[in-house]
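Milestone 3.1: sequence recovery, worked example.
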């Protein structure tokens, strides 16, 4: 029996759960400190509670942690388009504008899929500190041709995958 398509928020949270269960990097870097707060088709909001493990020697969030969040957020943006397998990175860029925060702060991000094709996906991610100031922006290109081979129905996780429920009301399209 094929798996039923999910609303975007539930689907993206299910993909996040897969990253945390099957990846080597994300569970070690982000652990339970990262969460998806909303997702609609083409757009994902997420946030990270900054801990000591995310900081540099100045005790502010490390640029490498933000770069990893660009990669992670770009993948979630691809997932918000209905792909459970989110492809592989071909290009990643980050521009840092100001400090993203210190231990105990929360950094928020919005990831959007600007273009989804049969071969490539292009995403952009913006990061905000607790004062709602833009602190960094990134772009992330992904090769998705092989990911499409695993799609029987968009927003339907593979059979046997435990589904995460959304929890909040969802809108069907990004603004």
């Amino acid at each position: 029996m094929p798996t039923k398509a999910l609303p975007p928020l539930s689907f993206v949270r299910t993909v996040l759960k897969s990253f945390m269960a099957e990846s080597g990097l994300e569970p070690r870097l982000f652990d339970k400190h990262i969460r998806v707060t909303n997702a609609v088709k083409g757009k994902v909001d997420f946030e990270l509670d900054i801990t000591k493990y995310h900081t540099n020697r100045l005790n502010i969030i490390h640029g490498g942690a933000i770069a990893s969040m660009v990669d992670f957020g770009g993948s979630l943006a691809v997932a918000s388009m209905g792909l459970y397998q989110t492809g592989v990175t071909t290009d990643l860029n980050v521009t840092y504008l100001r400090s993203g925060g210190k231990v105990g702060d929360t950094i928020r991000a919005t990831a959007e899929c600007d273009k989804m094709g049969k071969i490539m996906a292009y995403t952009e991610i913006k990061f905000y500190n607790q004062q709602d100031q833009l602190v960094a922006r990134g772009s992330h290109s992904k090769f998705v041709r092989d990911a499409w081979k695993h799609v029987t129905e968009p927003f339907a996780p593979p059979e046997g995958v435990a589904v995460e429920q959304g929890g909040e009301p969802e809108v069907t399209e990004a603004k």
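Residues 60 and 102 are 4 Å apart (CA to CA). Residues 63-79 form the longest helix (17 residues).
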